[in-house]
UniProtKB/TrEMBL annotation:
It comes from the Eukaryota. Residues 852-880 have a biased composition (Polar residues). This is Dedicator of cytokinesis 8. The keyword Phosphoprotein applies. PROSITE patterns: C2_DOCK, DOCKER. It comes from Oncorhynchus kisutch (Coho salmon). Belongs to the DOCK family. Coiled coil: none annotated. SUPFAM superfamilies: ARM repeat. Residues 1252-1685 form the DOCKER domain. Gene3D superfamilies: 1.20.58.740, 1.25.40.410, C2 domain.
Length: 1698
């Protein structure tokens, strides 16, 4: 076995030289060429050539969340900047994939519309195809043949030596692993979905409209756009038909997805309610809602009808206008953070966001801000894992007409936070809002983006959409744009008409339009519509505040901006007074014009955003008004009348959310000047307020490039990809401006360096473990590409001569370069103006560059090439081109950079190295690689520059180590980046050249005067990265002679080779009979260890062959003597059965089948148990098992059993089949458990099935029963938890009875049947389980007497917590004999005390104890999978109402199926033919325990009537006409009796229904049953030992009270008034008559009883009761005294033959 040395534990006193000369590397490419020519070409080709796919430059389509990319409208000519943006957001990613480092998958899991809730268990035979079987597995006649076959197999393709027994690297310590950055994507915060379920007021008389938005109180900022919805009935929608031209599907949404980037405890959801404008103040319009109730229909019927008629009238006349009405709020973060609490929101809690949680629980993300502010909330609240919650808000605040602004709203919210409730000064309106809040993990079906583009996955049919609501983050977001978005938000804020003298203008609305010109036809339909209307509209009106001359507005107008904006585009505001009351003979419009204002969209070609205060023009708009702002309009003839003498009276705010308009001066200037270079512009060029002539363009462009780093960080990051693309274009392409070549490359490069430095220094942005800025790494990996468009000729349109090309910067002479670099080294890094002292390192840099100068004398104007005079040389040196190569220019800029630019370029060398590599990869991919040798891919000049860069970077590392010890980490990062650079170059360049660079690095580093451990660490990390190259081994072969082991990253290859040679000895010994037990065990341990390590497929194949040989030859010895090893063997083999590698899986299956086959005769039971336990361990604990492969392996093993002809006449095939089916079931259920963590019933079903699957493995069954008990306990289902422990105790008792024969111990599970008959299932133990003491099973702590007692004591405690005190007694009946036998008097004292408490509780709590409530739940629809057509009885806590369980199940399953779920409200039988196959249906019915008469004799107490329940009943009323309800003489009732598989309480809270019986009651039988029930209730209440006066009076009121006595009386009049004509009804008639006699008698007793219970102030009440009773008795008397003669004839005796 390989030994892994722990280097840090040894101190080796070896003299290591401080410096050394590295081995002179081979000229690899030349060597390979000579070998190919010499004849051994095949081997050289295999070892020397890298695979064709070693370098791939591929385009990967961008994943698009929506069905199409968000792009500008078709047919519009875009300007250059917009075109570049759109191209950047839609073009594919370009990735250079080196050395098989493939990109992460871009595919996302598609939503499978046919997905079912649970998948049926696989049928191993029909559902899967087995893997190929191992050839000849069962065909060896003797052991020698098997050994010979295995030995020959081991020799096939065997290497002479054993390579690289190297353990896998520790991920945290693996510097050679370079993280792949996440794919760029649109930023999203934590997302929640809010569904509007109900908005109800006390009266329902008119349409209402809701607006939802999020507000951050701490930041005083609105953090989302508005979401509009309404829940108006069709009747109310009809009121608005004249004003609703169409209703688009997208406007029907009632659910919205909100995003929260920066969670804060002060985020509030605000719901504003509006109504159609009508006459009157808000208070007047709200009054009916505050004083009237729909439920008082008799009292308010006429008033409500009048209000509806008024509403209809206002809707038809003023339906386009709205008015503020009410608002409500909830702290959404409180809801999320408390969503694990199971309680309803109360009135007092509602404003603070307390919620009721339901049963479902359901970032390489944005770099978080480092401030404490954004850390607090994240710790308190997990935004993505809270339980879905239902918010019920039961109080609305009335809107105040003078307090409508956002400032007022924030004051209200601050008060609510401060005082935890509404203040008295806020008027409230009773009503209810019910909202469901759930976390969003994947996009729901039928979702629309904020631009209303459908988001994947699409809905199967026309379902109500869910809208994504755009977030306005409370702070900066540093994620580059990746989608086209161009939205404008207009916020009218305030209007001041107070000083206006005229009387008009009190009910003011503003019509807002987006215009492309001044003609009325130029209005554009770009405004997003609201709810239940058109998707886009041309105009929108602000809500009206009645009789207010200076109204505040809260409207948000969302628009999509045209991609191409002109000076004519503007916002037009038209101000109207609205006449609310239609005057007599008035037929005209209700609008009276007040005036106009406008705002040009562009100002000096820049989008206008921010705060504005505009004047208002009266009567008419000025001519050409759109070309000027209203403040600066030119004088007109005739003059324009202005309100308030042209003062600003209209305040508004404009905000843009755009990935096109940068809204940053520096970026806009840069992009504008860059696009000027592309031509098509006229000079002088206008940029903001400036006019730039052509001869100044280069100067201004340089200034704009320099000022890029002055941009604010957020816009710079948002447009980072576009900025870097432009700068790299300027570096690569010569720019000719006004006929002159512009020298822009150097300044563009310096700007790139400055941006790279800024991003690295920002505390806001994340870095990876190698110090790389995440945004830059992402750009390089996914975005950067060479721009191959023809070079720009500049605005003058004149290009350079075609015969050559010019660089953007001449290369200085070597001497000059050396001087420049030396000068930069002599400057202080903190202040370039302060000279630094000379050092040896400065001299080193000078020497490097001097050497370069000697090799290349003179000036290097490298980028001018005359194509005609430079034919390609055969040696492949410089490849002439009429176009600059980016990698050459970039390398040149790095070499000649100076000062701070140079410092930062080398400090963040990783960026420029990776940029070089990706550009080189693109260059190589464009060459014909097969025709261009490696040495000819890059010019000699470029190689010189790379050599210089590597040398200078190495010198930099040394400088940091010598002079700046505090910067050691920085040196390590630069060292790692240099190593990765050379690593990448091995795949691109002449490898001999790269080896020279490695040698130079080693030699340079060895000369540094730094501490030896630091130096060794740096060199080892460098070499470790290089040695991780995929083709490292091939490359190393050329550096080693046959006598020496190759250089390797792994320790002691030589020793491991020796170990490999010696491995054959123990194996040979093991395979030579007869071996000793210890030898076989030792070999097995070695083989098992080999299976644990990462091994090749070939090695594993031989390892499994050897294992099978051991099993065949020494199976008995293994299974008998090596029980522990056998268990380990089963687990390791089963683990490989889940391998995704076909060969490994095939070998493991063959081995496992042989283990079963050769253990069958004597030890199969043990193997079954160990395989089952291994599966449990693998599925429960292993993170790398693959379910689908494991299932396929089970099928393959089954195939072996079916094909094993020798064993067909034995029970083996059936036993294997049974075992595999059991394993398959366990596998399915355990995997499903992960999906159903938040469905408690399904989770318990799965745990139950798993526990049942371990029936033959008592240890595991006990563990799962305890797991179930813990789950139940956590849900406060104490009774079910106790039952799990009782079952566990019965299981222990079964196995104890095999070991010990003591009278004080229970005789297996039969002793427990007094607790529950269900426990008998624990006796169903497989006959072939060996006895516990021999088998090594049942050896845990619980399989002892004390373990049994411990389980029972826990169960008793839980029964007590659950209120089942009688069961506590039964449990202690089993415990006490054990305690008495052990003379444990202390425990006996404690036991009797607990029993006394239990009995006291029975006496004290009596009938007040609440037991479970039961419901029948049926599931229908293929989407439910296994649950389809299944019926269950659910046990819920006491006093659970039908709406509660219905809401809980609806909440959970709607998460699974969305709108496809439908709740069936009635209890009628389900007709499957009438159900929609694409829907899932749930039917819930309340059921009661049902007992036959004979059972009632034994079930006397309330406990007995609620324990061991197996039959339940529910009734369904119906009439022959098909209606559920009818008159008394039409009313039938169907009784349905359900029988469950087990009795309640059980170890689950739901049990399958296995039998259903139905019988119908006729109307008279229904009446009999009702009267018997009333009579029983009266009797019980009257004769109770401790009478309950309130209960008795309530029953009396329902029986004889003046308001209800028509109930019993009417029943009697319908059924007893006349004797029925049908003799069959005689007995029913008589039975009902007798029922009434008893009923009236019980009423009399109750009235008398009440007489003794009343207080003095209830005497009048008692007299009234007595009077009503007498009246009822007298009315019933005639009917009760009438007998049917036939029923009372004397019975004649029969005369028989005597």
């Amino acid at each position: 076995m390989p030994i892994h040395p722990e280097w840090h534990t040894y101190t080796i006193n070896v003299s290591i030289p401080q410096s050394y000369d590295a081995v002179e590397p081979l000229d690899l490419e030349e060597f390979l060429m000579s070998q190919l020519r010499s004849g051994d070409s095949a081997l050289m080709q295999e070892l020397g050539d890298f695979p064709d796919d070693d370098l791939e430059v591929e385009l990967v389509e961008k994943e698009c969340r929506t069905v199409r990319h968000s792009v500008p409208e078709e047919g519009v000519e875009l300007d250059s900047h917009v075109r570049d943006c759109v191209q950047s957001y839609t073009q594919p990613w370009l990735m250079s994939l080196l050395l098989q480092v493939k990109s992460p998958s871009l595919a996302v899991l598609s939503d499978d519309s046919s997905r079912t809730l649970t998948s049926s268990d696989f049928d191993l035979r029909s559902g899967l195809t087995p893997d190929p079987r191992v050839e000849g597995l069962l065909h060896f006649s003797n052991h020698d043949d098997l050994d010979r076959f295995n030995q020959e197999a081991r020799q096939v393709n065997r290497h002479p030596e054993l390579f690289a027994l190297y353990p896998p690297a520790d991920e945290e310590d693996a510097v050679e692993i370079r993280p792949i950055p996440d794919c760029p994507k649109e930023h999203m915060g934590d997302r929640i979905i809010i569904r509007c379920q109900a908005i109800k007021f006390e009266i329902d008389v008119e349409p209402l409209f809701a607006t939802l938005a999020l507000y951050d109180l701490r930041e005083k900022k609105k953090i989302s756009e508005n979401f509009y919805c309404d829940l108006n009935s069709d009747q109310f929608k009809g009121f608005l038909k004249p004003h609703t031209p169409q209703t688009d599907h997208s406007t029907l949404s009632r659910a919205a997805i909100f995003s929260i980037t920066y969670p804060s405890p002060d985020i509030y959801l605000v719901i504003k309610i509006e109504k159609v404008l009508q006459q009157g103040e808000i208070s007047d319009c709200a009054e009916p809602y505050m004083v009237m109730k729909e439920t008082d229909s008799a009292k308010n019927k006429e008033k409500l009808e009048k209000l509806r008629n008024q509403s209809e009238m206002f809707c038809q006349r003023l339906g386009r206008y709205r008015m503020p009405f009410a608002w409500a709020t909830v702290n959404i973060m409180n809801v999320i953070s408390t969503a694990t609490l199971d309680r309803d929101t109360t009135d007092s809690d509602s404003l603070n966001g307390v919620c009721k949680s339901s049963s479902l629980e359901k970032r390489g993300q944005l770099p978080r801000r480092n401030s404490e502010r954004f850390g607090t909330m994240e710790d308190q609240c997990n935004m993505s894992a809270f339980k879905p919650a239902t918010i019920t808000i039961s109080t609305f605040c009335k809107q105040e007409g003078d307090r409508l602004s956002d400032e007022d709203l924030f004051k209200f919210l601050a008060d609510i936070k401060k005082f935890s409730s509404l203040q008295r000064r806020i008027k409230t309106i009773p009503g209810t809002i019910r909202l469901d809040v759930t976390p969003v993990h994947d996009n729901p079906v039928a979702c629309l983006s904020t631009e209303l583009i459908p988001v994947k996955p699409l809905a199967e049919k026309n379902v109500r959409p869910v809208k994504e609501v755009l977030e306005f983050p409370s702070s900066e977001v540093y994620v580059p744009h990746s989608t086209y978005r161009n939205l404008l938000y207009v916020y009218p804020q305030r209007l001041n008409f107070v000083n206006r003298l005229t009387s008009g203008g009190r009910n003011i609305t503003i019509k807002i339009q987006f215009m492309s010109g001044e003609d009325p036809s130029c209005v554009m339909p770009v405004i997003f519509g609201k709810s239940n209307g058109p998707e886009f509209v041309q105009e929108v009106y602000t809500p009206v505040t009645y009789h207010n001359k200076s109204p505040d507005f809260y409207e948000e107008v969302k628009m999509v901006l045209p991609a191409r904006l002109t000076e004519r585009h503007h916002l037009l505001f038209t101000f109207y007074h609205i006449s609310c009351q239609q005057k007599q003979n008035q037929t005209g419009a209700s609008e009276t014009l007040i005036g106009y204002s406008w705002l040009p969209i562009l100002s000096t070609d820049r989008l206008q955003t921010g705060q504005y205060c505009l004047p208002i023009a009266l009567d008419r708009l000025p001519v050409n008004y759109s070309l000027h702002s209203p403040e600066r309009i030119t004088p007109q003839v005739p003059p324009v009348k202005w309100m308030e003498s042209h003062k600003g009276v209209f305040n508004l705010e404009i905000q843009a959310v755009s990935s096109v308009h940068t809204q940053d001066n520096h970026l806009e200037r840069f992009f504008t000047l860059c696009h000027a270079l592309e031509g098509g512009v006229t000079f002088p060029l206008r940029v903001r307020e400036e006019k730039i002539p052509e001869n100044k363009l280069e100067h201004e462009l340089k200034l704009s490039i320099i000022s890029l780093s002055s941009s604010r960080l957020e816009p710079l990051v948002l447009y980072l990809h576009l900025v870097l693309d432009k700068l790299f274009t300027l570096i690569m392409q010569p720019m000719v401006i006004a006929g002159q070549t512009a020298n822009l490359a150097q300044i563009a490069f310096e700007s790139v360096v400055s941006i790279v430095n800024s991003l690295h220094n920002s505390q806001e942005l994340a870095r990876d473990q190698q110090g790389r800025n995440g945004l830059l790494a992402t750009y390089l990996y996914w975005v950067f590409r060479l721009n191959h468009r023809t070079r720009c000729h500049g605005p003058g349109g004149v290009g350079p001569p075609t015969e050559g090309r010019y660089s953007t910067m001449g290369r200085a002479s070597a001497t000059t370069v050396g001087t420049m670099l030396l000068q930069s080294r002599l400057r202080s890094s903190s202040n370039p103006d302060i000279p630094a002292p000379h050092s040896a390192e400065d001299t080193e840099v000078k020497n490097i560059l001097s050497a370069k100068g000697q090799n290349n004398p003179g000036s290097r104007m490298s980028t001018y090439v005359d194509v005609s005079s430079h034919p390609q040389s055969s040696t492949g040196g410089t490849r002439p081109s009429n176009r600059k190569q980016f990698h050459e220019e970039l390398a040149l800029q790095i070499v000649v950079s100076t000062g701070v630019c140079r410092e930062n370029a080398y400090k963040y060398a990783w960026f420029f190295f990776e940029l070089l590599v990706k550009s080189m990869a693109q260059h190589v991919s464009q060459l014909e690689k097969q025709d261009v040798p490696r040495r000819s891919r890059f010019s000699d000049r470029f190689k010189d520059d790379v050599t210089t860069i590597v040398s200078v970077v190495t010198a930099e590392i040394g400088t940091i180590l010598v002079k700046q010890q505090k910067e050691l980490e920085q040196a390590e990062k630069v060292n790692i980046s240099l190593a990765f650079f050379l690593y990448d170059l091995l795949s691109l360049m002449d490898r001999g050249f790269v080896f020279i660079l490695v040698k130079n690095y080693c030699n340079q580093m060895s000369t540094k005067t730094v501490s030896m451990p630091t130096l060794i660490s740096m060199r080892l990390e460098f070499l470790r990265i290089l040695c991780s190259h995929e083709h490292y081994l091939n490359l190393s072969l050329y550096f080693s002679s046959p006598a020496s082991a190759p250089v390797s990253p792994c320790p002691s290859i030589s020793s491991q080779v020796s170990l490999a040679r010696s491995l054959s000895s123990p194996v040979s010994l093991a395979l030579s009979p007869p071996p000793s037990r210890s030898v076989v065990g030792g070999v097995l341990r070695v083989l098992l260890h080999c299976l644990t390590c990462n091994q090749s497929t070939t090695f594993l194949s031989h390892c499994f062959s050897t294992l099978r040989a051991l099993v065949v030859k020494f199976g008995d010895l293994l299974f008998e003597e090596e029980a522990e090893q056998c268990a380990d063997l089963c687990q390791k083999v089963l683990q490989h059965c889940s391998s995704p590698v076909d060969g490994n899986r095939s070998q493991a299956c063959a081995t496992l089948y042989l283990i079963m086959r050769y253990s069958f005769s004597s030890n199969f039971s043990r193997v079954k148990m160990q395989v089952t336990m291994s599966l449990a361990s693998l599925v429960g604990k292993s993170s790398d098992f693959h379910e689908e492969y494991l299932r396929r392996s089970l099928r393959t093993i089954l195939a072996y059993a079916e094909e094993d002809t020798e064993m067909q006449n034995t029970p083996l095939p059936s036993q294997v089949d049974e075992l595999l089916r059991n394993l398959n079931s366990i596998l399915s259920d355990t995997v499903k458990m992960r999906e159903f963590q938040e469905d408690p019933e399904m989770l318990m079903d799965l745990m139950y099935r798993i526990a049942k699957g371990y029936q033959t493995s008592p240890d595991l069954r006990l563990t799962w029963l305890q797991n179930m008990a813990e789950k139940h306990k956590n849900r406060k289902c104490f009774t079910e938890s106790a039952m799990c422990l009782v079952h566990a105790a019965a299981l222990v008792a079964e196995y104890l009875s095999m070991l010990e024969d003591h009278k004080y111990l229970p005789v297996g599970s039969v002793t427990f049947q007094n607790i529950s008959p269900n426990v008998l299932e624990e006796s169903a133990v497989s006959d072939d389980i060996l006895s516990p003491d021999e088998d090594g099973v049942c050896s845990g702590q619980y399989f002892t007497t004390s373990g049994l007692v411990g389980l029972l004591k826990q169960a008793a405690e839980l029964f007590s917590n659950g209120g089942l005190y009688e069961t506590v007694n039964e449990v202690y009946k089993i415990i006490m004999p054990v305690l008495e036998a052990h003379r444990d008097f202390r425990e006996l004292v404690s036991t009797h005390e607990k029993l006394q408490r239990a009995f006291d509780n029975i006496i004290q709590k009596g009938h007040k104890r609440m037991f479970g409530t039961y419901f029948r739940v049926g599931f229908y629809g293929a989407k439910f999978g296994d649950l389809d057509e299944q019926e269950f009885v659910y046990k819920e806590p006491g006093i659970t109402h039908l709406p509660e369980i219905s809401h809980r199940l609806e909440n959970f399953y709607s998460q699974c199926f969305g709108d496809a779920l439908e709740m069936i409200k009635d209890s009628k039988d389900i007709d499957r033919s009438k159900l929609d196959a694409n829907k899932a249906y749930i039917q819930i019915t309340y059921v009661e325990p049902f007992f036959d008469d004979y059972e009632m004799k034994d079930r006397l107490t309330n406990f007995e009537k609620n324990f061991n329940l197996r039959r339940f009943m529910y009734t369904t009323p119906f009439t022959k006409a098909g209606r559920p309800r009818g008159e008394l003489n039409e009313q039938y009732k169907r009784k349905t009796i359900l029988t469950t598989m087990h009795t309640f309480p059980y170890i689950k809270t739901r049990i399958n229904v296995i039998q259903k019986e139905e019988f119908d009651l006729t109307p008279i039988e229904v009446a009999i049953e009702d009267m018997q029930k009333k009579t029983r209730e009266l009797a019980v209440a009257t004769h109770r030992e401790q009478p309950d006066a309130k209960m008795l009076q309530m029953l009396l009121q329902g029986s004889v009270g003046a308001t209800v006595n028509q109930g019993p009386l009417e029943v009697a009049q319908v059924f007893l008034n006349e004797i029925p004509a049908d003799p069959k009804l005689f007995r029913h008639h008589n039975k009902l008559r007798l029922c009434f006699k008893e009923f009236i008698m019980r009423c009399g007793e109750a009235v008398e009883k009440n007489k003794h219970l009343i207080t003095l102030d209830q005497k009048e009440y008692q007299q009234e009761l007595k009077k009503n009773y007498n009246r009822l008795r007298e009315n019933l008397r005639p009917m009760l005294e009438r007998k049917i003669p036939e029923l009372y004839k004397p019975i004649k005796p029969r005369l028989g033959n005597r």
